[in-house]
Amino acid sequence: MSSKPGVLVSSPHPFAVSRPFYRRNLAFSVSFLQLAALAILLAGFVAWTGLDLDAYTPFFATSTKPAYRVQRAEILARCAAIRQSAGPPPDFWGRDKSDRFERGTNGTLIRNAKIFTGENNGTVVIYGDLLLDKGIIRGIGDIPGRVIDSVENLTVIQAHGAWVTPGLVDLHSHIGLVSSPVLSGAIDVDSPHGPIVPWLRSIDALNTHDDAFQLAMAGGVTTVQVLPGSNNAIGGQSFFAKLRKTSDRSASSMIVEPPSSLTGEDDFTGPPRWRHMKQACGENLKGRAGTRMDTMWALRSAYNQARKVMHAQDDYCQLADAGLWDSITGPFPDDLQWEILVDVLRGKVKISNHCYEAVDLDALIRLTNEFKFPIASIHHAAEAWLVPDVLKRAWGSIPTVALFATTYRFKREAYRGSEYAPRVLADAGIHVAMKSDHPVLNSRYLAYEAQQAHYFGLQPHLALASITSTPAIAAGLSHRIGILQKGADADVVLWDSHPLQLGATPVKVWIDGIPQVPIPPKSGKAKPIEIGKGKDAEHWRRAPPVPNWDKEREEALQWEGLPPLKGRSSGGSVMFTNVTRVWTRTLGGPIEEHLSISKDATTVNGTLGESVVVENGKITCIGQTCATTSEEATVVDLKGGTISPGLMSYGSPLGLQEIAGEPSTADGALFDALKGNIPKIMDDSGGLVRAVDALMFETRDALTAYRSGVTLATSSLGPPNYIAGASSHFLSGLSTAFRTGAAHAMEPGAIVQEVVALHVVLGRTHPMMQTTVSVSTQIAGLRRLLHGWESRDKETGYWFRKAAEGVVPLVVEVDSADIMASLLILKTDVEDRIGSRMRMVFSGAAEAHLLARQLSVAGVGVILCPARQYPMVWDQRRILPGPPITNDTALVKLLEEQVVVGLGVRGAWEARHARFDIQWAALESNGRIQERQAYALVTTELEKLLGVREIDGESADLVAVEAGTIFNMSSKIVGVISAQRGVVDYF
């Protein structure tokens, strides 16, 4: 291939009927009469015996015959094979065991389960039993006793009516290619060798030691599509892998239905197995393929090359089928570089296409029609919901759309993505799959994507299908995975609650009928893992009821993904009716409860709760007898909802950028004092800066957070980038606290506190970055600053002296327990030197649980960021993952040692999920974290750790929630009550 971008040159492999063929000279000569006599005798023998000479040409051939002339039967079989459609063999459903069966595996009978089969778009639910044997499902529902009795070494599991689903299928993952922990020698996701590389195969780089395999299985994920990256227009061939460790321990043994191109076992009989390939378009390719125009030309050129090979094959086979062997002048035409693209054109490849914007989707659909091949699924597809009719014009069939639930606005082409997209697409008759793009999102929480899709309107059966049957069907593998049916693979999950309930956790997971969760002990007896405590009530076994989003969905469509988010404000008198709980803030103290009515109780009037009157942003009355003095008062029915304090977000660059991947929408690059000299104009060796100077108001992420009950945010200028490494620097400046719903910095109360805390980042070099300075250098620099060697009349010296004296918190972004231990020693040293008590806080803190007691003794607080840790890099590898892998979580461990803990997020788009993070953390604790304590994690405790002062009843915003509390996925935020501004904002 040419090194010039967008120019494709065919490999020098010859094509049929175009290559001159030269016969070798005969090794001996015979007379014409002898040859004629021999021919007559041979013809008579064939006629007498009825033999098919073509079938026996290898036997009768001499060295004078070219290879293609002595393999006519094989050629005819190959020609027949290229016309066959891909799919399971006709006898698949007659198999009595799986090709993946491991000898010694017991059969398993799951009794009395509520079985979501995945069939018919997820509408089929069976109440009964499930029998697993020899790696397949032997029976489902009402299973005859004779079938059960035929299974040897049967293990019986009593489900007691719990939900059972197929193993979850992640249609988009880079697991094993970007492995956990990420090391520079094991990043194999993209190729640097041009935009078109269909000959590459993800299995050739699949790391079988990825720690993420076990974590994903702990979330019920059993099968993933391992995709090459999206920096190439055609990134290569992908493969579906089961996540369990096999006895073979090889990457090949993990693949579901490996195609003959991988095994080399094709004898051209029976239908071929589906192959899979990754394509991409849009922004990611700009570094390697040029513009969008270059990308589409590269794709068209590649498919044109493949079409030439396909036509040569068709011409060749036409001659062979007609018996015109003398007209064939070469071997069967093929080309190893382009052979999978030929299979694409023959409809034997399931393409997964990375594509975001309408312009790219339109170009892709035109490509399919030009070359007449189908696309199985379009991934990310942030604007697909805006152009469903474009997708319906795809050649062959409508692609499945694989989406994030709420992960948007991280780059320009994701800016118009919407939480309402799954429902809009489903209403348009387009199948939707939810995916992780692991490690962008931790594949372990694939079910959370479906839960969010359901929360924002996707029907429950489609939401569950989106992570089971829908991706399996899109992959052409639904005969094996994604659907529980007799004869399918025994990949099964038993849940502690309905899988669409927030925090739903697998109790047991089987892959190929082999238990994966709980983790089989390597030796001795393992301590039982407690799962699902507190989920005994009947409502846990139902899909949660969700709010009505019809109005918001229509507005989002009307505004092409960018609807106004401000809402409307109203002063004066407001009466909230049917309120069941009221909590408010006290100065520096705990949250105070004013009203608490059981959700099952009713008042004497038969209402769902009591009334709350708000005058000019302040609550003036709570109770049945409350009345407003204004005839023009606004009345809001909360339908059994609540009023409670707003939440705070920390850890992301919320309010400091609009689009993470667009430098023009953010503050810009900071100078790093450990990597280069600070400009003289700063007149400060550290170049310390303030986040307040870069604040941006009314960003979409901030307003979305505001509409989700997050009314306050603290942001610093250098938060670490989760995947690509720390975009920040050793000194990441002074954070600021602001109101997420404010219009601009001059609005009263918009900036809550100009300077909140001093922030530094310590850690080892991220494998996706250029080398940073050593850890020892970082700590040496921090020691010098805290010892006061910088002049106090400069910003750096002044604020580090304040931190050393405990006037402001020193927030250290750190994950490694070893580095934390060094910092605790440094803290003691500084305090002994100047006789102070530092307010040190560790943020990120993936391994903080290993030092829980020492942190408590030292008085060092922790902000777990994110709340559910993932071992992305080496410094984070010793996480405490929680149920169903461990009984404890990092949060529980820290709280048990009385460490002050808060919860944070990494991405600005995640700030809106603070209320769900609270509930999830409490559920994972199995009753060890109570509601009030959980609430404090993103309110009072987080404020205390960061040094946000004087949030009380006069300055704290209150959030009005319809149909529930702020914590659950059945409620909806409908307004914010602002005492400081004297208004109520309605959404």
TrEMBL record:
Entry GO MF terms: allantoinase activity
Entry superkingdom: Eukaryota
InterPro entries, per the entry: Amidohydro-rel, DHOase/Allantoinase_Hydrolase, Metal-dep_hydrolase_composite, Metal_Hydrolase
Ranges for domain Amidohydrolase-related: 418-510
Transcription among keywords: no
Keywords from the named record: Membrane, Transmembrane, Transmembrane helix
Listed Pfam families: Amidohydro_1
Gene Ontology cellular component list: cytoplasm
Name of the protein this chain belongs to: Amidohydrolase-related domain-containing protein
Species this chain originates from: Coprinopsis marcescibilis (Agaric fungus)
